Amino acid sequence: MSEGIAGKVIAITGASSGLGEASARYLAARGARVALAARRRDRLDAIVADIEKLGGTARAYTVDVTDRNTVDSFVQGVTKEFGCLDVLVNNAGLMAIAPLAQTRVEEWDRMIDINIKGVLYGIAAALPIFTQQKSGHFINISSVAGIKVFAPGGSVYSGTKYAVRAISEGLRQEAGDLFRVTCIEPGAVKSELSQGSGDEESRKRVESFYETAIPAESVARAIAYAVEQPDEVDINEIVLRPKTQEF
Questions:
Q1: pLDDT tens, residue order, the chain (247 aa)
Q2: In the chain, is it the N or the C terminus that has fewer CB atoms within a 10 Å radius of its CB?
Q3: In Å, what is the CA distance from 145 to each residue of 124, 130, 155, 239, 245?
Q4: Cα–Cα distance between 137 and 153 in angstroms, integer?
Q5: 44 near 64, Cβ under 8 Å?
Q6: Is 15 in contact with 44 (CB distance < 8 Å)?
Q7: Omega prior to 186 cis, within 30 of 0
Q8: SS3 label, residue 216
Q9: Distance CA 221, CA 116 (A)
Q10: Is 203 helix (H, G, I), strand (E, B) or coil?
């Protein structure tokens, strides 16, 4: 077990599959006490059972990150149950790729609600706790699409991920020495993210793009690297992608 991870309380949104699930399993195996949040409680319960069978500590929470009250209740609940909160991983996300000309406004709204407001709700819930503790760590999941616009099709998605990156950097500057902030920008990673579009043609293009996707555990290892650093070290940004991915 990593000394920098063992015993830490780590809350993860979007933990029922993909990057969130992989991160929960990976961090729990290294001694973290993990709190898993997502809408699909049955999936969460199965993951928690697996972790506990291996001797880990995990709890499941039913959370919709677009609902500020449930996000706040989640963070407060984790802090009460475990006695503190060391790390919040804002991972829940939606990638609905489609040309702007299709004006899929409902999908735009959904991405804004999950990818931007969901992150902000997590920050709003945990910020007072981290400030009071004078310690803590926000890990926000952006994307390589938050570094370079993914178009055609990904303009709104890129916009949301640029926002996550900007919010993370602003939060880091405001944090001083109270807490740490890390923004992670993955490329193609195996997860349900590629299935998010309601446009069949766009979805097929994304699936083709994801044929060389790297395992979700790749991101879990990046999260672990940021978490396990000494308290005075803040890993601000990590970019990772398949070595064959040009974008």
A1: 345 999 999 999 999 999 999 999 999 999 999 999 999 999 999 999 999 999 999 999 999 999 999 999 999 999 999 999 999 999 999 999 999 999 999 999 999 999 999 999 999 999 999 999 999 999 999 999 999 998 889 999 999 999 999 999 999 999 999 999 999 999 999 988 777 777 788 888 888 888 899 999 999 999 999 999 999 999 999 999 999 998 8
A2: N
A3: 25, 29, 9, 11, 12
A4: 33
A5: no
A6: yes
A7: no
A8: coil
A9: 24
A10: helix
DSSP, collapsed to helix, strand or coil, labels residue 200 as helix
pTM flag (> 0.85): yes
Among the listed residues 26, 121, 157, 210, the single catalytic one is: 157
Give me the helices (H) in 118-240, please. 118-133, 155-175, 200-209, 217-227
Residue 95 CA, chain-centre distance (Å), reads 13
Q: In this structure, what token pair is assigned to residue 10?
A: 């780590």
Specify whether 61 is catalytic.
no
Look-up of token digits 């990057």: 19
Strand order in the sheet with 87-90: 57-62, 33-38, 9-13, 87-90, 137-141, 180-186, 237-240
